Structure to design on (268 residues):
């Protein structure tokens, strides 16, 4: 399963965020890495720390607050103006970004744009209204909508790109980029070019962010043995893990764990 934790609170909340996560149905699997319904703790807006991710993420708040598309990114950021309270999120693969939104994933890298600017104001409002009315059936409505978008989309995903991107999301031992290219029957140069053309990031950068995201998933769980997490997620050792987490998130692994566990978030 692809891990993409989009953001975490950058300040204390009165209660943890509630969320329900769903794996996409098989027909959407090449395009959607996952979707969730959420409700902010206490229902009040808070600043968020956006984490590096490899997917394009849609955040659709049904209360009339922010409805956004955020692209893949390799650096964290603090967003003080976003007001997510209740709604859904969905992560799209590069193929899904192109097929469902009609825009190459590279156009969103490092960017945050209004969903209405991508879907059009009418489509965005109609979708948000349907999601609001659906209540606990919100994710069913979202999956249905994405199925409709997919049928309206054009073309099939680039097989080499899709296979390589998917392989780089897998946890465990790192695969060198030249080895991955050879297994796919292409040169390293060709693989680098297709990644930059379609995704806007190099394969090495995608692999590094994916490794971090798997560590984030482990830090959000019940076991917080940092050495074990470093080994499981493909880091050379614990110091390498600590350096990478600090550089990519602005936090130490211990502070990041506190944020994920809804302890006192680190200032920033």
């Amino acid at each position: 399963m692809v891990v993409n934790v989009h953001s975490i609170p950058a300040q204390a909340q009165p209660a943890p965020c509630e969320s329900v996560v769903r794996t996409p149905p098989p027909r959407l699997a090449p395009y959607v890495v996952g979707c969730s319904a959420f409700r902010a703790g206490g229902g009040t807006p808070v600043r968020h720390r956006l984490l590096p991710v490899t997917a394009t993420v849609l955040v659709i708040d049904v209360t009339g607050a922010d409805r956004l598309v955020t692209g893949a990114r390799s650096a964290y950021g603090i967003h003080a103006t976003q007001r997510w309270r209740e709604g859904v999120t969905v992560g799209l693969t590069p193929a899904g970004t192109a097929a469902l939104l009609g825009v190459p994933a590279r156009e969103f890298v490092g960017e945050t744009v209004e969903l209405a600017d991508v879907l059009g104001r009418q489509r965005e409002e109609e979708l948000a209204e349907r999601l609001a009315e659906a209540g606990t059936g919100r994710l069913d409505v979202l999956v249905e909508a994405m199925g409709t978008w997919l049928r309206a989309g054009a073309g099939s995903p680039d097989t080499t790109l899709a296979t390589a991107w998917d392989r780089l999301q897998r946890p465990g031992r790192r695969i060198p980029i030249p080895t991955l290219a050879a297994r796919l029957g292409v040169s390293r140069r060709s693989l680098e070019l297709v990644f930059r053309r379609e995704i806007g990031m190099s394969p090495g950068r995608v692999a590094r962010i994916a490794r971090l995201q798997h560590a984030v998933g482990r830090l959000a769980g019940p076991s917080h043995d940092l050495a074990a997490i470093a080994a499981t997620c493909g880091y050379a050792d614990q110091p390498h893990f600590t350096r990478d987490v600090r550089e990519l998130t602005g936090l130490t692994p211990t502070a990041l764990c506190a944020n994920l566990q809804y302890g006192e978030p680190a200032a920033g």
